[in-house]
Design brief:
Layout (H helix, E strand, L loop, with lengths): L26 H16 L23 E12 L3 E15 L3 E14 L5 E4 L2 E12 L4 E5 L2 E4 L16 E12 L2 E11 L6 E11 L4 E12 L5 E14 L2 E10 L10 E12 H12 L1
Antiparallel strand pairs: 1-2, 1-14, 2-3, 3-4, 3-5, 5-6, 5-7, 6-8, 7-8, 8-9, 9-10, 10-11, 11-12, 12-13, 13-14
Length: about 290
């Protein structure tokens, strides 16, 4: 999940989400493109996964002693504002077979029409994922992923790049195999003051096109509890294995609303995932020293 992919209270500055992807979509053409991507993802046997590059997450963890390091760029376009996260650093570490530790932080670049561009460190997001249920016979996995979003000791708050205060996110993720499909829904709640509390819900469905390529489609919805803001978006993307330790991550999407809406006209993510095992490295060193 992106540290900034959350709604703000009325009158506050945007919080950015996780630039290399830059494009302009107009209404009907964009809907046709992404509707096609969603249908393609849903039409064949699936291996859907949440997590980067997607907004929602899934019950999967890296495995004991394994690292997943994601380095990416993100862009979000509004009628009069452009927000970039370049780069986003997102690190996951597996503790045992069912636990995952996470830390994520972006570098923000915010440009308003007619105003100087500002940049600085965004909010950090730290969390622990626990897959508390797993049944291979039923093809079902369930996890929870509590996460804390907080400001860093920089001047980003004073310059209006980030919002004041901390927030706590408590979601439930599920992966269920239904026939040839694997469906990955998530629902969660952001606990926060000053109108920042919000519900979030979404689903990712996808398939393995080949041994190297996975394609997915996603629907996601976020809404402040005080009614100040509501986003509903759709996106498509996937992962391409470049090698044993390298995976290309890509995603693009937009809001269901038109250009007059405050919701994003376009958002996109492009990054690289680096996979390695601390235990394997330790074992190799021990063998070398013998």
């Amino acid at each position: 999940m992106f540290a900034g992919r959350r709604l703000r209270s009325r009158g506050q500055r945007k919080i950015s989400i996780p630039t290399i992807l830059v494009a302009s979509f107009c209404g009907k053409a964009a809907r046709r493109v992404f509707a096609g991507a969603m249908l393609a993802a849903l039409s064949l046997p699936a291996a859907a996964q949440g997590g980067p590059p997607f907004i929602g997450d899934d019950p999967g963890t890296p495995g004991d002693g394994n690292w997943e390091i994601n380095v990416a760029a993100y862009t979000e376009r509004h009628p009069t504002e452009r927000i970039y996260n370049a780069p986003i650093l997102h690190a996951n570490y597996g503790v045992g077979p069912r636990l995952q530790l996470k830390y994520q932080v972006p570098y923000l670049v915010d440009g308003d029409d007619g105003e100087p561009t500002r940049s600085g460190l965004g909010k950090s997001l730290a969390g622990v994922k626990w897959r508390f249920y797993e049944n291979d016979e039923k093809g079902l996995q369930i996890s929870t992923y509590p996460q804390l979003e907080f400001n860093n000791p920089t001047s980003s708050l004073q310059r209006g790049l980030v919002d004041y205060g901390t927030r706590f996110y408590l979601p439930i993720e599920l992966t269920k195999k239904v026939g040839p499909f694997e469906i990955n829904p998530e629902i969660g709640y952001w606990f926060a003051g000053r109108g920042g509390a919000a519900w979030a819900t979404g689903v990712v469905v996808g398939r393995d096109v080949s041994k190297k390529l996975e394609l997915d489609g996603e629907l996601y919805d976020t809404a402040n509890t005080n009614g100040s803001n509501h986003w509903n978006t759709f996106d498509g993307g996937g992962r391409y294995k470049l090698g044993e330790h390298f995976v290309l991550l890509f995603m693009a999407g937009r809001s269901f609303r038109g250009p007059a809406s405050s919701q994003p006209q376009f958002f996109g993510y492009l990054g690289m995932q680096f996979l390695f095992s601390a235990k394997h490295e330790q074992g190799s060193t021990a063998e070398t020293n013998r």
